Fold these 2 entries.
Entry 1:
Amino acid sequence: MSLEKKTTTTERRVLILQKLNLNGQVNVTNLSEELEVSEVTIRNDLNKLEKKKMLVRTRGGAINISRVGLDFNISEKKALYFEEKKKIGEAAAKLIEEGDTIILDSGSTTKEIIKHLDSFASLTIITNAINIANELAEMKNVNVIIPGGILRKNSLSLVGSTAEENFQNYFCDKLFLAVDGFNTTHGLSTPNVEEAHLNRVMIEIARKVIVVTDSSKFSKRSFAVIAPISKVDIVVTDSGIKAQDQKDLEDSGTIVVIA
């Protein structure tokens, strides 16, 4: 038996967006009950709104990717802008040279880099990401260093004072850093304070800082500031970056690579 339709399509989608702005995420089942329409109708609404780039679909619902401080888990992030991240990972890997010692920060974009490391004879990779370390363990050409720390389950990353102290024992050629917010005025940011503090340590021990981020992160600010854009040498992103953002970066001396 179909449920009674109490709102128009436009009204219903406005209500969905309002709930997203308020809560950061919505659930198909809950929306179906609250709006008194079928789950099929709600899924169709969410799909239409995603095509208009007003939300991102997840399993069982949708999320709002623009809220300051919203901290998505790694599986949710993986689903966001997946095709762009694959291209960014491939382009970023081309910046690595034989024999480099690099840091791979935790993140769904940095994880894409490791799919393109087979051609190297020898690399040393320092990472605080458990999921990345797990995949690197299968690669005979890569020496893996895990500095330790406290596990942050949302990002599968190791953070805290132990991680920071251990990172300070190293120096690396290149840091590949993923961010949740990239504002050309206010700099790089992330939802988690401990993650931000560890990222600053990574930046200080790296000869070259390379930010890998899809274009949706530009003009957004997350809760915890990592660093100003003056600390960034190269940005690898996709073609969706706004012309003004690219100009601002290049004017500041940052190289922009479009994947």
Entry 2:
Amino acid sequence: MAVEKTIHILPTEAERATLVGRVWDPESGGPRVVAVRGDDVVDLTGTFLTVSELLESADPAGAVASADGVVRWTLAELVGASWERDSGRAHLLAPIDLQVVKACGVTFVESMVERVIEERCGGDFNRAAEVRRTVGEALGGSITSLKPGSEAARQAKEVLIAESMWSQYLEVGLGPDPEVFTKAPVLSAVGFGADIGIPTFSSWNNPEPELVLAVDSTGRVRGATLGNDVNLRDVEGRSALLLGKAKDNNASAAVGPFIRLFDASFTLEDLRTEEIVLEVQGEDGYRLEGRNNLGRISRPFEELVEATHGAHHQYPDGFVLFTGTLFAPTQDRDTPGLGFTHKEGDAVTIRSRHLGALANRTGVTEELAPWTFGLGSLFAYLRTLEPARNGVSA
């Protein structure tokens, strides 16, 4: 897959968007907080040491607009180095740092059905088509408009239970409380161009194209980006208690390309009907398209944020929240009836009109570069920047 043209990574209305992110800077040996201004990428690290600090501003978009910054790179060169995975050149990182990476599951009724199928299959993809037919017949195809926690949702749950299809996914898909889990450790998410990992212990897996909300320490949503919540269907299908093994592996969370901050031209309302488009292009010539239409999400964004943050749980450095996906890959890749699973080298692109495009390739988790730059490394790097920030010679 060739390097995409610069404009393809950006939102359709890029000239109006306030976009911030992070760049790995080989010259200083660490991550820089950046903003996109036209074709240029401006280093804002002199004003904001972390993206978390930036999002805690009273007006993040206004702070970015007024911040002094140095033009250090062009967007084209960063996109090229990132897609070529050239670690010796400046390249894009996930646009988050100190934020905890949280995720919501089963936020679309259709995706709940697929989770029930995974569980009924016991992680065996050979049974998926048969179980999907059985579940569809039991539901009668009439649950897509159900509101979780409603009387109608309770009745739909009873129908499935009566058909011996009880599942814990019914509770979070149709009940009053959403599923919220920790997707990945702080600083472990990968950004545009990086390889995403598929472990050797999984043989049934897929991408999950999702909207990711960027939330500050007080629970205010400050902007949004795109994410790939890489999913191991066979592992989670064996038992929901294996969620950590299914969701949290090296390079299993991709976020980017940038956080688009809310401002006068872009608010949370603009995302309520956002359509996120997925494309998988395999080295074997296989091509898959999918769509995640947020207009069909079963719980409003505010409910998901409130279930994550509040008197019951605080996040002093903020958090990002994967909001779930409508997409479920049922299109066959090889053998009829066995559906989709990743192969090494798949190019995965997730894009939307307001947020741009996040593109990655799949690799074998155990063979990817290990995650080594953690909080200790970040703090050591930031200490080297403090003298310059305070106007003191190093």
